[in-house]
């Protein structure tokens, strides 16, 4: 299938990982298997689609790693017999699709193709939202409040009045917030806040 130049498989179970790799390569899909997100981070790929086993915190770890690297790869989660709440949570965390394993090579190929088309049709908006949300999640409650004030166009003095803290304290929180967001300017922070749906 020519839509996928590179499939990044993340699964801590070595037998299942080998089985999936075998199924995919039989369908002419190039697979790069990894045990976990840390192993992937050590040899970061240029592009690809991620097929990740839905274990506790795996998708969040992956998104955090993508935010750090400044790269986005569409994420497809999978697990054995997933229930609806688990699928919903994975989608909320940033997956664009969910696959129940085991699955035939043909079905898997079709699902991957559909997921990639969906990722392209989403454009970068959803992807930027997910990455911005991952950045905003690193902020403390107070830094988030300061970001909200900045995004609403308030001065340090007005933010301080609203939060009952001094303008100098607002300045400190603001500097920490910009640093954690990886924002060079206030305008970058506002863009991240908007993309993370922190402000309308």
Automatic annotation (TrEMBL):
SUPFAM superfamilies: C-terminal effector domain of the bipartite response regulators, CheY-like. Residues 132-197 form the HTH luxR-type domain. GO terms for molecular function: DNA binding. Residues 6-116 form the Response regulatory domain. InterPro entries: CheY-like_superfamily, FleQ, Sig_transdc_resp-reg_C-effctor, Sig_transdc_resp-reg_receiver, Tscrpt_reg_LuxR_C, WH-like_DNA-bd_sf. The keyword Transcription applies. It comes from the Bacteria. Transmembrane segments: none annotated. SMART domains: HTH_LUXR (SM00421). GO terms for biological process: phosphorelay signal transduction system; regulation of DNA-templated transcription. Pfam families: FleQ, GerE. Keywords: DNA-binding, Transcription, Transcription regulation. This is LuxR family transcriptional regulator.
């Amino acid at each position: 299938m020519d839509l996928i130049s590179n499939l990044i498989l993340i699964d801590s179970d070595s037998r299942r990982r080998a089985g999936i790799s075998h199924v995919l390569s039989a369908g002419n899909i190039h697979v790069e298997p990894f045990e976990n997100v840390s192993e992937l981070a050590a040899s970061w790929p240029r592009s690809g689609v991620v097929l990740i086993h839905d274990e506790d915190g795996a998708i969040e770890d992956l998104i955090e790693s993508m935010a750090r690297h400044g790269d986005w790869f569409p994420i497809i989660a999978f697990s054995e017999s997933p229930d609806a709440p688990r699928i919903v949570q994975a989608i909320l965390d940033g997956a664009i699709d969910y696959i129940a394993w085991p699955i035939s090579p043909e079905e898997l190929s079709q699902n991957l193709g559909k997921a990639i088309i969906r990722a392209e049709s989403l454009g970068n908006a959803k992807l930027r939202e997910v990455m911005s949300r991952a950045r905003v999640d690193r902020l403390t409650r107070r830094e988030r409040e300061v970001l909200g004030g900045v995004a609403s166009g308030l001065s340090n003095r007005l933010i301080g009045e609203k939060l009952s803290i001094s303008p100098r304290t607002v300045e400190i929180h603001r500097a920490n917030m910009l640093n954690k967001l990886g924002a060079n300017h206030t305008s970058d922070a506002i863009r991240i806040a908007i993309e993370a749906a922190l402000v309308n």
